[in-house]
TrEMBL record:
Gene Ontology, cellular component aspect: membrane
Keyword Transmembrane tagged: yes
Family: Belongs to the ROH1 family.
Subcellular compartments: Membrane
Alphabetical UniProt keywords: Membrane, Transmembrane, Transmembrane helix
Membrane topology, from the record: Single-pass membrane protein
Source organism (scientific name): Dendrobium catenatum
Pfam families the record matches: ROH1-like
Coiled coil ranges: none
The protein, known as: UPF0496 protein 4
Annotated TM spans: 195-218
Length: 386
């Protein structure tokens, strides 16, 4: 079955973009060709660095951090390539500028959506700290009222983490639009322009793919994954296609399992919180049961008729041992939840920082282009005034 048949989008827009950029009659100077080769080899290295050691790594915050660092490096290097080509904006085609500005605003929207999603973890962190404070057995063993508040807070915490973020859901449509515009038209007879278009094509393919995986893992959305076709003549195409073949089946398998969250650290937190929740529920039931027994006439009669002091001591000792065991289990469960929470929120903080870095790189590139456009337009404005 083809990827389009199994509900996953595969883009082969208007044939082979490579062939459109580089016809057999193209002539590129050795200097520019060397710059292009260096850039494409850098792309290949970045892609290979994202190969997961095992399938679960794809769903971790550490992999996302590494992926965003790769995007930042790639987008920084494309600016360096433009500088090395000595390719001023006055030589750019207007359509290239329009595409660049349109693409950059879409990527900025994706960064904003990612920041919005990660900020929800900050809200959850405050709630989780409250739960851990209530249940800290080193202070006092929690009362029935504290256990009730902890159970309610746990429920709200999991609801926050598992609820959908509309901004993140819309990112899939944004990425689809970017993928549909991967086709590049004819380049005028400029070897610099052809080198730039080929480099930008690679940047766009890698950016769409990486962002689509991050969005899928964070959102858990059942929307079809975006699958791209990289022509074989690019130096980075082999690394890209191998990475895509490795990652896409794993993400699809997890999406089909209908897990609410694919994020590894969040799933671990959910499991730990679930264990703690079960302990809370059992303790609540036990306290309720004890209250019922104490209030019963049967227990009062049994207490009055108790004659054996040794047996009373055994019962008291048994109760103390039971309480000690409960306290120990609660301490272990609270400590485990705190440890998993620390890993999650530490990873979220680092990832948020990488999103901000990528956002700033995009903004700087966009601002530089707009500033240069204003400089280019300035003589025309002066002429109009005179």
């Amino acid at each position: 079955m083809s990827s389009t048949d199994d509900g996953h989008n595969s883009y082969f827009p208007f044939g082979n973009s490579f062939r459109l950029i580089f016809s057999r009659k193209s002539h590129i100077s050795p200097k520019f060709l060397a710059l292009l080769n260096d850039f494409e080899l850098m792309l290949a290295r970045s892609l290979r660095s994202l190969e997961p050691k095992d399938s679960s790594e794809i769903f971790s915050l550490s992999w996302m951090k590494k992926a965003l660092e790769s995007l930042s490096l790639i987008h920084t290097n494309i600016k360096g390539l433009i500088t090395d080509l000595q390719f001023p904006l006055s030589d750019w085609d207007n359509s290239w500028m329009n595409v660049y500005l349109d693409d950059s605003i879409k990527l900025l929207d994706i960064c904003i959506a990612l920041s919005s999603e990660l900020s929800r973890f900050d809200q959850g962190q405050l709630l989780l700290q409250y739960v851990l404070h209530i249940l800290d057995p080193s202070i006092n063993f929690p009362s029935s009222e504290q256990l009730k508040r902890a159970a309610e807070s746990h429920h709200e915490l999991m609801w926050r983490f598992k609820s959908r973020n509309p901004k993140l859901e819309r990112c899939h449509d944004i990425l689809q639009k970017l993928a549909e515009k991967l086709y590049i038209g004819k380049v005028r007879s400029s070897s610099k322009g052809k080198v730039l278009m080929r480099a930008l094509y690679g940047v766009k393919v890698v950016t769409i793919f990486v962002c689509s995986i991050i969005i899928a893992v964070l959102s858990g959305s059942s929307k079809p994954l975006i699958e791209l076709n990289a022509p074989e003549k690019f130096f980075w195409s082999k690394a890209f296609n191998e990475l895509q073949v490795t990652i896409l089946p794993e993400v699809r398998a997890h999406l089909s399992s209908e897990k609410v969250s694919l994020l590894k650290e969040l799933e671990a937190l959910d499991v730990s919180a679930g264990r703690l929740h079960n302990l809370i529920c059992k303790k609540q039931e036990k306290l309720q049961c004890q209250c019922n027994v104490v209030d019963s006439e049967e227990f009062a009669a049994m207490e009055k008729s108790a004659e054996n002091g040794n047996r009373e001591e055994e019962v008291i000792l048994s109760q103390k041992l039971s309480e000690q065991e409960e306290r120990k289990r609660l301490q272990e469960s609270v400590a485990d939840l705190a440890e998993r929470a620390e890993k999650l929120f530490e990873g979220v903080d680092i990832l948020s920082s990488r999103v901000e870095d990528f956002f700033q790189i995009l903004m700087n590139g966009r601002d530089a282009l707009l500033a240069n456009l204003r400089v280019l337009d300035q003589p025309e404005e002066k002429k109009a005034v005179s």
